Fold this protein.
Amino acid sequence: PLILKGLQDPDPGVRHMAAFAAGQLGAASLVPRLLTASARERDVRARSSMLDAVGRTGTLSDLDSLAGLFPAGSRRDRAGVLMALTRFALRGIRSPRAVWYAVACLADRSPEVRWRSLYLLWRSAPHPILATELSGKSEQFAKLATDTSADVRLNLATLLGRVESEEARKLLVNLATAEVRRKDPDWRVRVQLVRAAGVHVRRDGSVAALLLEGLNDANDHVVIAACMAFPGDAPTSRSMDLRDSVRSVLWGLVRSARSRPPDVAGEAVVALLRFRPEEADDVLAFSMTADLPVRMRSKILEALSLAPTPGGWRAMRSAWEDPTIAVAMA
């Protein structure tokens, strides 16, 4: 009763807090009232709280009702509606209407609306309609590759890593090319690019070039993401040229353990043995001759567990007697 009274209060601040409380309490019985109130609410903050509460507690039929009250062609409070639809998606309630609404908002003048649209799309994955929309609206998605907002570009890269289709791979390469050409490239975008490339490289070896670029990136976050994304079962692992290039770069990163942050060399050694397990003995020999940080030693043990050898097993068994290693690997 108190929340219902709050939703009807003349003070927009009270209406905002009442809607917030409804969402936090998960009051599903209030969703019809929240929908009705949001449709007539004029205060932006109060309306956003009402929409958020609907997204937190509503059902699939409530999602359809929301889409009916705020049609895709309307520009009214798009950011709030996108937020509500994303709340549904995060709870596993996904609908083609939500996808269509997000696609309709991609050309909005507001960068916030554009990145929220892409965020809703990748949070809606996996959904079969996403590949269809990417293919049918490829020109619209391609324009976003040169968007001035880094938030837009990083969410686009994330989306392309969630949709395994030929069109997604093509757009991913275009986005990577556009990012390289920018005067103000953003490392967060490049992180998402290499993560997406790690998904697609299993089906299309040509995408591996993006991962190799990530391994050579000047930003440690990008290098770590590339190491973690590079799979050992990619079709490109049959290419001797690529194998040699990747091996050379990874070994270079491994040997940089004393000059770069431990996580860079650590993820590199794990990627190396995931990619070339036959080099386990060489990694073990390196670990015995170098004065390495505890974090690096623990990552070497993790890597050796991916390619077990008699020497590796002995090294792992003795390492557990060192409490600093045990803590580092915990």
Remarks:
- Residues 236-240 have pLDDT under 50 and may be disordered.
- The two ends are 49 Å apart (CA to CA).
